[in-house]
């Protein structure tokens, strides 16, 4: 059987097709600029000879329905999916499940309503997800759609971790609390970290750091999330590509009162124009690294603020957990930047976090690996994330086939 994973945004759909026998990804791609005069379709697949092949095409894609039709036609034409009946499930990534969803669920009308109900909490994401889900249900009524939520893994947080110190009614009537995101990634790397440590996940205490364009830290006690750095929205916490992360809320009041900025302008400023980009004009860590090496002061500062914040979270989560088996790095930066890993762990020897500089900076190493020195009580692991695979496997479990 096969599992199709869809990540539907407001104007794009990313997909990946897995073979469930061995969980090999046999096709992936993207439909972009849905609803614009010229849409884009990118497709990559494993050909019959086992080699990778790809195609790229431009054509109008008026709606999500045409987008998904195009994807299925591509899968059929390239032999990746001979017939839709080969699909055991379609797994949909959904950013926000509010407090309703603690695990993946098979989509029915009530689930659609519950996802719609949290649109005010994720106005940029949930409407696009819903379009993809509704089209998939309509086009493939016999294939179960399963939704996997970015928030689900964090639902084990206690109120002490998820409540903000604001008046009670804002929580009870308006659901303002911390939810956390990147949950599928944190859960996936936690499971893989447990495998690398050779222990069951439910005996592992971990600090997991997902450092990509978006970035978040999670404290995991005996396999369950007890705290995470993102909050009501993915803006809180670590320094990110274009998001500021933690900030004194009074800055927003200041921006409004003294600079006359509207809520839309503040939203844009903090979500799209801040973070690494705001500090040094670039949001690609590779470029920032290059600039810093040339003595570019703002690039150096951007790295410094990023690392300072990371260290604060490692320390805070260490204190919450008491004992830590491993610090896990993942995401584009976490997996690839030896420098950020080294700086974030620098000076933490007394906590048992001791890097093996050679292992950490080995350029020929890829994949899951330990980069800490044997004498350190806390392992430092690099675990490439694979959210699509996790969604595919959770979808398979939800339909009772795994
Ligand atoms: P997204 O959150 O969009 O999925 P990724 O997880 O792909 O993002 O991470 C993107 C970030 O990873 C970018 O800042 C990019 O510069 C960084 N990155 C990728 N490769 C490297 C590398 N070799 N060294 C440093 N940073 C890297």
Q: Key features?
A:
Nucleotidyltransferase, domain 5, 6-stranded mixed sheet, 8-stranded mixed sheet, 15 helices, binds adenosine-5'-diphosphate, alpha/beta, globular, 402 residues
Structure description:
The chain is of the alpha/beta class. 38% of the residues lie in helices and 21% in strands. It has 15 helices and 14 strands. The protein has helices at 64-77, 109-117, 126-139, 159-162, 168-172, 183-197, 250-259, 263-272, 275-280, 285-293, 297-321, 331-336, 338-345, 357-361, 387-398, and strands spanning 2-8, 13-19, 24-32, 39-46, 52-59, 87-94, 105-106, 145-149, 206-211, 215-221, 224-228, 326-330, 369-370, 379-382. It has an eight-stranded mixed β-sheet with strand order 5-4-3-2-1-6-8-7, sandwiched between helices. A hairpin with a 4-residue loop joins strand 2 and strand 3 (24-32). It starts with a strand and ends with a helix. The relative contact order is 0.11. Adenosine-5'-diphosphate binds at residues 212-214, 241, 284-286, 289, 331-333, 336-337.
């Amino acid at each position: 059987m096969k599992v199709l994973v869809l990540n539907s945004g407001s104007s794009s759909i990313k997909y990946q097709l897995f073979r469930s026998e061995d969980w090999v990804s046999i096709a992936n791609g993207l439909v972009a600029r849905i609803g614009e005069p010229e849409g884009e379709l990118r497709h990559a697949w494993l050909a019959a000879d086992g080699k990778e092949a790809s195609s790229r095409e431009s054509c109008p894609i008026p709606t999500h329905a045409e987008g998904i039709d195009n994807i299925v036609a591509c899968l059929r034409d390239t032999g990746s999916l001979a017939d839709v009946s080969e699909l055991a499930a379609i797994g949909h990534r959904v950013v926000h499940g509010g407090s309703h969803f603690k695990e993946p669920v098979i989509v029915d009308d009530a689930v659609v309503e519950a996802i719609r109900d949290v649109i005010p909490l994720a106005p940029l994401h949930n409407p696009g997800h819903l379009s993809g889900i509704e089209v998939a249900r309509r086009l493939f009524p016999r294939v179960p759609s399963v939704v996997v939520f970015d928030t689900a893994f964090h639902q084990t947080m206690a109120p002490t971790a998820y409540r903000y110190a604001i008046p009670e009614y804002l929580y009870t009537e308006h659901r303002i609390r911390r939810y956390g995101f990147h949950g599928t990634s944190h859960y996936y790397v936690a499971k893989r970290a447990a495998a690398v440590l050779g222990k069951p996940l439910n005996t592992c205490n971990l600090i997991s750091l997902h450092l990509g364009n978006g970035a978040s830290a999670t404290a995991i006690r005996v396999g369950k999330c007890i705290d995470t750095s993102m909050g009501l929205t993915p803006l809180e916490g670590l320094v990110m590509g274009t998001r500021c992360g933690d900030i004194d809320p009074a800055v927003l009041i200041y921006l409004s009162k003294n600079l006359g900025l509207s809520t839309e302008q503040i939203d844009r400023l903090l979500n799209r124009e801040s973070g690494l980009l705001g500090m040094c004009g670039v949001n690609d860590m590779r470029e920032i690294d290059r600039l810093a090496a040339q003595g570019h002061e703002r690039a150096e500062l951007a790295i410094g603020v990023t690392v300072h914040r990371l260290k604060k979270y490692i320390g805070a989560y260490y204190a919450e957990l008491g004992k830590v088996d491993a610090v896990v790095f993942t995401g584009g930066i976490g997996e690839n930047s030896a420098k950020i890993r080294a700086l974030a762990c620098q000076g933490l020897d007394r906590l048992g976090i001791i890097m093996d500089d050679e292992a950490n900076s080995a350029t020929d190493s890829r994949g899951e690996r330990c980069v800490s020195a044997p004498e350190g009580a806390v392992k430092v692991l690099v675990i490439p994330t694979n959210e699509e695979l996790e969604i595919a496997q959770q979808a398979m479990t939800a339909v009772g086939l795994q």
